[in-house]
Amino acid sequence: MTISTYNGVMRDVMNMANAMNRSFAYDYARNGGSSNGENGHAERKMLLPINAWVDESAYMVQAYLPSVDPETVEITFEGDELTIRGEFPTAGEEVKFLKRELFSGAFERKLTFNAPVEVDKIEAVFEKGALTLSIPKAEVAKPKQIKIVAK
Fold first, then answer.
1. Is residue 10 very low, low, confident or very high in pLDDT (cuts 50, 70, 90)?
2. Coil, strand or helix: which one is 136?
3. Residue ranges of the domains in the chain?
4. Mind listing the pLDDT tens digit for each residue in 66-99?
5. pLDDT at residue 27, rounded to an integer
6. What's residue 28's pLDDT?
7. Where do runs of H (alpha helix) occur along the chain?
8. Residues 109, 127: contact at Cβ < 8 Å?
9. Chain CA centroid to CA 140, Å
């Protein structure tokens, strides 16, 4: 009886996935990228990948936006929904790709908050291609320590 380790199984799965990618033409537009209207495909907005976490005082959201001008990124908070919109630059018409895996075109991400936040205190910082948003929790949403009174 042989026992496979997790790493061994994952290596086998990745080897198979790599072989499949080499066997078939990779169409990035069909796999999450943008065709920018090429080959009859309509342009669509990409779902912007993010990292999100929470600390004691704020919700944090981070997205990588390499080559995007921060002045062209639109961030709005309406009702209980945060929206991030923008566009990755496209290559010129003269470029004939051998392999296309980098996304170009419009992106958007919407996040709904089910807890109150301080909308007027939201901060957005763009550094080295990474957008980081700090969304402060409202006082009523912050955890409260309840003291036990012994009698």
1. low
2. strand
3. 6-141
4. 999 999 999 999 999 999 999 998 877 778 888 8
5. 46
6. 44
7. 6-23
8. no
9. 28
Nearest Cα residue to 29 out of 17, 48, 47, 42: 42
Pick the CATH number of 6-141 from 2.60.40.790, 3.40.50.1820, 3.30.70.20, 1.20.1180.10: 2.60.40.790
In sequence order, which residues have a C-beta less than 8 Å from that of residue 126 and are 6 or more positions away? 65, 70, 73, 132
pLDDT at 41 over 60: no
Return d(Cα 20, Cα 111) in angstroms, integer. 34
| Report field, pTM of the whole predicted structure over 0.85 | no
Q: Are 131 and 84 in contact (CB under 8 A)?
A: yes
Residue 27 phi, psi (nearest 5): -100, 100
> Which two tokens mark 134?
């700090």
Fill in the amino acid letter for 23: S
Place of tokens 């062209």: 72
First vs last C-alpha separation in the chain = 63
